[in-house]
Design goal:
The complex is a heterodimer of chains A (about 350) and B (about 260). Chain A has about 350 residues and is α/β, with parallel strands linked by helices. Chain A contains 9 helices and 18 strands. Chain A is elongated. Chain A starts with a strand and ends with a helix. In chain B, the strands form 3 sheets. A 9-stranded mixed sheet of chain B has the order 11-10-9-12-8-1-6-7-13, with helices on both faces. A two-stranded antiparallel sheet of chain B has the order 2-5. A two-stranded antiparallel ribbon of chain B has the order 3-4. Chain B is globular and about 70 Å long. The chains are: A alpha/beta (about 350), B alpha/beta (about 260).
Chain lengths: ~350, ~260
Amino acid sequence: MNNKVLVYIDQFHGEVLPISWETLGVGRKLADELGGDVAAVIAGQDIKGAAEQAFKYGASQVYYADDPSLAEYRPEPFTSLISKITQDQSPEILLFPTTTRGRELAGMCAIDLESGVLPDVTAIELQDGRVLATRPVYAGKLLAKAFCDSAPQIITTRGRAFDKPEPDPSLTGEPILVDAVIAEADTQTKVVEYAETVGGVSLTDAAVIVSGGRGVSNNPNLTPPEGMDEKQAEIWRAQQGFKMVAELASVLNAAIGASRAAVDAGYIPYDQQVGQTGKVVSPDLYIACGISGAIQHLAGMRTSKIIVAINRDSDAPIFKLARFGVVGDLYQILPPLTEAFRERLSK
Amino acid sequence: MNIVVCIKQVPDSAAKVAVQDGQVTWGEAPLVMNPWDEYAVETALTVQEDHGGDVTVVSIGKEGVEEALKIGLAMGSNNAILISDPALEAADSQAVARVLAAVIQKIGDVDIVFFGKQAIDGDMGVTAAQTARVLGWPILSLASSVETSSDGIRVERTVEEGRQVVEGKLPAVVSVVKDIGEPRYPSFMGIRKANRATIPVWTLGDLGIEEPISKVHWPELQNPPVQEIANEIIPGDSPEEIANTLADKILGEKVL
């Protein structure tokens, strides 16, 4: 059979990002419906092991480029490689996981291949052999249906929007080694430093998120250390509040999120911001602490399966989206809630 | 150092966006410069302070888009150019990238092109990388800090796994994230200058390019399905009682 679908497997320092398998699952289904096969492509250094894994998740063929010039991700050599394999294989559909790398590569391959790109889709159907994709726009305030009328149809799939296939250990194969397309000397950028984010669960992958808003700084019973001005004292108070958020997050193995108000006030780094100008997330459980629910925040988390809101103001808009609400002081609720989960989850 | 900043006009992030009769509406909410693009303008102006040269803000759209460009001028940019052509009304991201690349080439002698991370309307997040690819320039995306020398650039990038420092040669295309630093407010003098400015309008003919063919089509826009959520306020006489009830209820939903 011929490869109707090609899927880019995103890896970092040899570790495949699990969202890649969700994308491969989508590729497998589309290929089955189109009566063809799905191939995978992966690039890096010392990644044969990662390449072999792709068979277990449904790839019929796996192409891998293993080269020192691909050890650190740079968009240009990765794009040229994927474009070349796509030209050789001429699949109808080229899929990427929506990671920072996948989105960028999808866009650049669209230029090389003179086709269109549909980034960050959350649902896919085939209509007359062509993909009709659902894309949230305006941070999910609206849903757009879109298609691409040229080949290959280039699509990136949003994490947690599609099921991850169960790996089948009986599926094995020998990955096909391909050469890097661009020599190191012709690559215009160099990665000179790298610092891993230590600890913590990444927001976009998280199944559970505990978020804090402006309200985390409102504990009247805390006395800041002497010598702080008003702004320093406010941030100090907020940090004490976020410690409580972090303790609950740690018990639930959750990521820590924040509202734009909390980020803009300097309580917590921008990396943690959930919302239209932050990250759009869709966990199974989202616990909002001291977040009133501005439209821009709700847009970024409204598709969470179960939303829990803890807020002193019973009129806060966040309660409308909440399956469970607690009208009360987060400082009084969070410690016993953390304790309650610790007891129940340790059993 | 000559810098171009590509910006977009979008409905304010506080807008209640909805679909009515197949059209997007945002009520009384204002149209503003895409919030992420403000960070791109800020970065451009900071680089200009160190190296001199011109900052030009560029946008594609209809007449009203001049208002967003005027914000760029009021913040301190030297020039603004509006690209307006009926043929671009339904342009997809690769078509937009091809037009922007032509604009950058026509401006000439450009060292850096800045973009915001993505526009908050279409949420595509690919235009910076696509423009770089058309130009054949390196893309340094998601920069949280930018340092420039006369022929080189060094950025810190925010990716899933952490922070990466990347160096490259100029010219280059850079997209920035919020960590780059708060955008400055337009000065009083800047606003006066912007209001008096006549912004040149270029068509595809002025750029000397043919209409780029869009490949992506949007047959349908929908309001998201209304979620039926049974709101339940957890009762209790003490925080402990509320916490215990809440924990049981959450566990009962089988999401943990």
